[in-house]
Amino acid sequence: MTGGLKGVAYEQWQTTLEREFFGPHMAGHAVVFYVDETAESTLMHGSGLLVELADAVSAELHWDRPPEMFSRLQWRCRHWASGDQSDAPPVLPVLAVSVLAASKMATQGDISSSNYYERLAEVFSVGPRERDNLRSHFRPVADMWELLDTWLMTRGGERGHSTVSGDSHLTRIGYPISQALLREQDRRILTAFFASTGVKPGSPDEFPGQEIIRRLRLWTASHGHGLSRPLLKVLHRAGAAPEAADKRLVLAELLERLVEHWDGTLYERGLRARRVSSLRLVLTKRARQLHWAAEAVPGIRTASVRRDGSSAHCYELSDPYGGFYTGLEELDVSAHQLTHGLVLDNEDLYLAWAPQSIVFFVEDEYSGDLVSVGTFSPGEPHTLLVANSQLDDVRSVLREVADDERVDVRKAPLAGWTLIRNVDLKVAVTPAALLKGGMPQAAHFVPSTRRGIRFTGGLRIGTELGHHHYLQGGIPDWLLPRDISQGEVTQQVTLSGEDGSYIHDFPLQKVLRPFPARLMPLDDGTYQVTTPDQGTATFTVSSALCEREAASAGSIAHRCGASAAADAASVRPEERAIRGANVPEQLTLPKTLMIPRRVKELVLIGAKGEPLPMDLPDIPDWMSERLPGEAYGYCAEVTIPDGYIWLIQRWQHRTTVRRLDPGGSASKPTPAADDMEWAETVLSAASAAAGPLWDAYVTAAREVLT
Questions:
Q1: Sign, CA torsion 424/426/431/432
Q2: What 3-state DSSP class applies to 34?
Q3: Which distant-in-sequence residues (6+ apart) come within 8 Å of 706 by Cβ?
Q4: Segment (H or E) for 676
Q5: N or C: less crowded end of the chain, CB within 10 Å?
Q6: How far lies 117's CA from each of 53, 247, 447, in Å?
């Protein structure tokens, strides 16, 4: 390289790399500074560069003065630091070369500290002496990685969020290795993985790196993913050797940063920024019916999506309730969808289901239905939907780790699959027991790794005041921090209240399920649960809401004991009691039904004719003024007059018939001979129900019309 080109080529590469990886277009996105030979060639020809990357960097190094090898680049950094620092620090070409060397290691599957400098020497086309000098004096390059990391953080994400990850053992070369683990295709595919497995954007505490690795292992074991071979090699490398453990730690931190800075969009080429979310399975009607649901995306209340980009049928998503859209009830669930995946999308939205042969369900707090979840959480009963091909393996695992006496196996509402109900781990099951050899499918039952403290269950009050206010005697159980990779450890928890602090030691090998804090007798007050290096969580305990403390608290209230007297006359004057009304035995309450508001038409049918169209009641003003729409807009309560046997509901694309007294002894219909309206209404829904009584109604309707 001539003297005139010295320095110019380096600056040209600096400009090109900054424009490609750290330009304004990366605002809000996590940046992976991945450079391999293909990327170098594309950038070089696309930008009209005449000097290869390694040559441009080599010209800036003092090869003849090893201790000062990087001094010219260090001078560039000092000069940059004295300016406004609006552009990236002048270290991008040398960092790109360090990643180029790491990418060669990744391609050849030999990522380790022992051969990194061999690959770096190959990139620079130098011999053994220069290789050893690079090894001895490489610390300034690690400092340059830290400088880039700091600059990205100070820019607040406007030039991208840093994914630069160090390593406790590979203190100098861990940085380039962290960038070489993920190619651009990996970064794109991982956002689809996040969507289909329910990973939430910006939630590194709920989805730390070790948890992402755990989910990614399960996902790649049964999914045609397209992830690069170097990433898979690190992901699935077995053994506890320091070298393998180092790479997994680097990968865990990198994945965690991707989750932290993920904005909830699918990374695609071009300017598209589609929001992503997961599809869920829902078991209804006492686990006899299976249908799809879509997890609602904040800011998108309605959407039209099509299956796998098809133009055949469009599904209208609307009315988010309890975190889910309605509108997918007509999409039939098939075994092929479960095991091969499903995508519903449009120009703005991407909904995905990850292929799986085992699906976990828990009860949804809003609807009471069983809804699929991404992980197994001990402490609450789960229902499993298992492909029959995996049933023997799953039953073998459950015999080892679950309470087999409570497990209930029954036929699933899907051919080739089986339902297993009431599944929970035994109290003393350890991570080692779950992961021991010879237990197929056991990895699915390993609880999710998490940071921080979460609460589960409990009797919440005053929800408008916050999420963690509980009735005395109904405090929540604690989901304590846990990292399966660290083995069996003791977790120390400090519980601080008005009466002082209490320290509890919990052996986590015996607490895979939530700690039953509900058994602790806590008085009214505010309590803070603290664990070392894992943050805190606060909850309050109250025997009642104070007057006017919240909108739901009335102006008059009584505190009573745990029992009540049957007769007010037996209560002494000094005792507290609530006086109630004496309801006559002959009093009967009106029959009511909860009807989804999305029903288009509602008609009641009786045995003697005259169909009765019904209108859903309007939402009361007091409710619409005090509650958000999603809280009251799902169902309406309808009063059913006496004498009506059937309820016909017309939806957008289907009609359903429901018997109003399924256990009753209704007689056959006796309509008037000229009751044409009754007959036409019955026949319009003739195929929507079955059974002797409905068949009698259909027959009577045909006789009227003939």
A1: negative
A2: coil
A3: none
A4: helix 676-684
A5: C
A6: 17, 17, 40
Report which DSSP code applies to 515. Answer: B
pLDDT confidence of residue 214: 83
Q: In the structure encoding, which two tokens stand for residue 532, read together?
A: 């070392």
The mean per-residue pLDDT over the stretch 638-661 comes to: 86
State in Å, rounded, how far the first CA of the chain is from the last one: 100
Q: How far apart are CA 172 and CA 154, in angstroms?
A: 22
Region of 303 (left: φ > 0; alpha: ψ -120 to 50; beta: rest) is beta
pLDDT at position 123: 92
- Residue 112, classified by CB atoms within 10 Å of its CB into exposed (0-12), middle (13-18) or buried (19+), is middle
Q: List, as one string, the DSSP characters of 204-219.
A: TTTS-HHHHHHHHHHH
179 and 32 Cβ atoms separated by less than 8 Å: yes
Q: What is the rounded CA–CA span in Å between residue 596 and residue 594?
A: 7
With 80 as the cut, is the pLDDT of residue 535 above it?
no
C-alpha span between 206 and 534 (Å, rounded): 12
Q: What single-letter amino acid sits at 617?
A: P
Token pair listed for 177 = 């290795």
Counts for the chain of helices (H) and strands (E), in that order: 20, 27
Find how far residue 601's CA is from the centre of its chain: 36
How many residues are recorded in the chain? 706
CB atoms within 10 A of CB 357: 20
Q: Per the structure block, which two tokens stand in for 587?
A: 């009093």
Q: In whole angstroms, give the CA distance from residue 148 to residue 143.
A: 9
Residue 301: strand, helix, or coil: coil
How would you write 131-170 as a 3-class SS string?
HHHHHHCCHHHHHHHHHHHHHHHHCCCCCCEECCCCCCCC
Q: What is residue 554's predicted lDDT score, i.e. its pLDDT?
A: 47
| 483 contacts: CB under 8 Å, gap ≥ 6 | 208, 210, 449
Q: Range with the lowest mean pLDDT among 98-102, 145-149, 170-174, 229-233? A: 170-174
Q: Show the tokens assigned to 595.
A: 């009807």
Percent over 70 (pLDDT), the chain = 78
Could you give the residue ranges of the DSSP H alpha helices within 60-112? 71-81, 92-108
Q: DSSP letters of 321-333?
A: ETTEEE--TTS--
Structure confidence at residue 72 as a pLDDT band (50, 70, 90): very high
pLDDT at 106 over 70: no
Contact assessment for residue 384 and residue 361, using Cβ atoms and an 8 Å cutoff? yes
Cβ-contact 645, 330 below 8 angstroms: no
Q: 539-597: per-residue pLDDT in tens?
A: 888 877 665 555 555 444 444 455 555 555 566 666 665 555 555 566 667 788 888 87
Helix (H) or strand (E) holding 320: strand 314-321
Provide the Cα torsion 302, 304, 307, 311; round to 10°: 180
Transcribe 590-628 into DSSP letters. PEEEEEETT-SEEEEEETTS--EEE-PPPPPHHHHHHS-
φ, ψ dihedrals at 705, nearest 5°: -85, -10
Q: What is the largest CA-CA distance in the chain?
A: 110
Residue 59 is predicted with a pLDDT of: 93
61, pLDDT greater than 90? yes
β-strands 161-162, 30-31 pairing: parallel
CA distance 246 to 240: 10
Higher-pLDDT residue of 437, 440: 440
